[in-house]
Design goal:
The structure is a homodimer. By secondary structure, chain A is of the alpha/beta class. The first copy, chain A, contains 14 helices and 11 strands. In chain A, helix 8 links the parallel strand 7 and strand 8.
Chain lengths: ~425, ~425
């Protein structure tokens, strides 16, 4: 994989150029893209041309190549949102987040594959660790491109588990910041209460570097050794739905963290969290039925069967059920704040297990939905694997607005796992 | 003005057709649009053709004509967001709210004029009560079209005071619902924390009818007489910036409400609200600098001077200031909930006074920003006027999520004012 932080340091030191990074990406694309299918579009020549701008060396991203999930509008690349309804669509402007990437000195190398409208309807991307397995979704191409060394940084989005799950399945760092830290304007939305922009990179320090550069925030965590965090091991009420290997991975991570000096305690989540877990689908689908109303009402035959069934069902959710779900969410957010009074982060699975076989499903977001609903920062930490060698990701969940602490804890965990 | 509720009742009763309503609108447009300039585009023939669909009589909106602020994407009308950058832009789809209008049986008669990107940079629309005065903004065309009898229902949006202020200046009912009740997906955004979709109609019962129909919510308040509400008279810390006539209007409204049985008490807002008032501009401008990054970075010469100066200034706002403003907001929201423990609504000015003379400014949003920031439902109540006969609007502010109670109190107030 391409470490964004390492590349940026070498560019700053004058031992590497941004154009050479594009060459690294191009070589990996040449070698692997035909099999993986991570990109909806890319333009190596245009990126190399842009990378030759000498001013980029002074920018936060140093001219590093960035992939953009094809759910974000770009003025220079067609943007199809993973839907045949939008094949060849050229937006008139960049989405806000893409503009922020460009302002930070990032070069958009291409658009990465999204599932249809960033939902559960799969796309064709394959998992670089085993092409017979899903890379997860909905940010399928972003996670796969990082894993295959085709990009150092990629943008994604999460409404259920669309950043953390593919990061886990592909063995890369995924970061879903606190709700509304990164804008979703100019992104095709599904749920205005849940849609959250996120980032992918090789390791936790890389994704923190990218977040710091793009958001202009104090999120770089590579300048000092992270302190041992206070970790709450949250098995959650769906622990039994995690595979034995995932359960072992989480417990291994917890044990290694404790050995390295972290204070690890078992946390039992209060019952409100089970209500909130159920509230997620109500909020998401009620809003999705309205967010995709134009497509559902005018192009229903061009919507995939999984998404169409979801939208069919969503039509029956009432405003009263939706309002109740939002009230539950509000209570659960307070409960999470109360719960984390004397711990820094929660440790919990990133997914039920390793990437499932086949491309008919992108896997389940059951270990992600709750944290998306609660707006908490989440980081996938890679480094563990199942017997077949497929990545098993564990998840750090931070307090709302404490994104830096979440990233520091994730970096700590990544390092102790790697020992 | 065209009462949406009255028209819908007559259509349901079979004494009027949706096509005839389009004719009413067309006649008013013919008579007044050349002077007022409320529309960015309209298509009477297409609307009449759509209105002939007999199934519309069974829909919530009964085929009523609706105007859409040109900040919302429409697939059938060009959408320019009030900016020359987007002249002739044809979005590939309807915004979510426009789809909801169509699902509810509304017919989009045209796009109404917005100020540039729904900001303070004025457009050319004039006030129907006196064409030498501004109609307010940013939903200038929607408010003016209702006031001139050119539409029974219009969509707007508010980031500062863009629904309530033009409604006040034009003497119509304006409703800014609780934050996130109506979707802003497919609307050109300026501030993702503040942008709120809203509605205009002739009277409070009309706007409640439209909101009920479009949102599919229990918001119709025309079936029984509203009960006298418990009103907190909130002069706010900027009371001295209201004109003497506006101060008198608010106090007249309060006195009439008390005479009619409402419990009216003076409310002193706690100091956190002054902090929140200041936080509004920080949140708005920090986000706006990112929301319009593409336009600012690529088409700066095509941005008007007021907006450009705002965005220039916004570049200096730090993430720390922004985060602090959001924390202040959170505290102020709790303070508002606490404050309203034993009152139903606040009564406060909708604007500093009547519509200012000239078109160089759309007036000040100082009496609106705080409530937008706090996400509370707001209703402009018309019926009072200054010595020159220009409307003076008073504002009802409800508790978050208690939109029905806010509308009921506004209807009560509208009726006692009219006595």
């Amino acid at each position: 994989m391409l470490s964004a932080l390492d590349l940026a340091r070498r560019i700053e030191a004058g031992t590497l150029t941004a154009a050479a990074v594009i060459d690294f990406c191009a070589a990996a694309i040449e070698a692997r893209e035909a099999q993986i299918g991570a990109f909806a579009a890319f333009d190596v020549e245009r990126a190399k041309s842009a990378a030759r701008n000498p001013a980029l060396i002074k920018t936060p991203l140093c001219g590093l190549a960035v992939g953009v999930k094809d759910i974000f509008d770009t003025a220079d690349f067609a943007t199809a949102y993973g839907s045949v309804i939008y094949t060849g669509h050229h937006p008139p402007s960049d989405s806000a987040l893409v503009s922020m990437v460009r302002r930070a000195g990032g070069i958009i190398l291409g658009k990465t594959v999204t599932t249809e409208f960033a939902t559960l309807q799969p796309a064709h991307t394959r998992n670089p660790h085993n092409p017979n397995h899903t890379p997860g979704g909905s940010s399928s191409g972003s996670a796969a491109a990082i894993a295959a060394g085709m990009l150092p940084i990629a943008l994604g989005s999460q409404t259920g588990g669309s950043v953390i799950r593919p990061a886990a399945y592909c063995g890369v760092a995924g970061f879903k910041p606190s709700y509304k830290i990164l804008p979703t304007l100019g992104m095709k939305g599904f749920s205005w209460y849940l849609d959250t922009a996120g980032l992918f990179a090789a390791g936790v320090a890389d994704v923190a570097f990218a977040a710091a550069a793009i958001a202009g925030r104090d999120l770089r965590i590579d300048q000092s050794e992270p302190k041992p965090p206070r970790i709450g091991l949250a098995r959650t009420h769906i622990w039994e739905e995690a595979s034995a290997e995932m359960q072992a991975a989480v417990e291994t991570a917890a044990r290694k963290a404790a050995t390295a000096g972290a204070r690890v305690s078992d946390i039992t989540l209060p019952p409100i969290f089970e209500d909130a877990f159920r509230a997620h689908a109500i909020v998401q689908d009620y809003e999705g039925h309205r967010a995709l109303a134009f497509e559902y009402d005018h192009h229903q035959e061009k919507i995939g069967p999984i998404l169409r069934a979801q939208l069919d069902h969503a039509a029956s959710i009432t405003a009263e059920e939706y309002d109740a779900a939002r009230r539950t969410t509000k209570r659960a957010r307070q409960a999470l704040a109360d719960l984390m009074g004397d711990i820094d982060v929660l440790l919990t699975p990133s997914a039920p297990g390793a990437a499932p076989e086949g491309l008919a499903s992108t896997g389940a977001s059951i270990f992600n939905r709750l944290w998306t609903l609660l707006g908490a920062p989440c980081v996938n930490v890679a480094g563990l694997a199942d017997k077949a060698g497929l990545p098993l990701g564990v998840q750090i969940v931070g307090r709302f607005g404490r994104d830096r602490a979440a990233l520091e804890a994730a970096l700590f965990l990544e390092r102790v796992i790697a020992r």
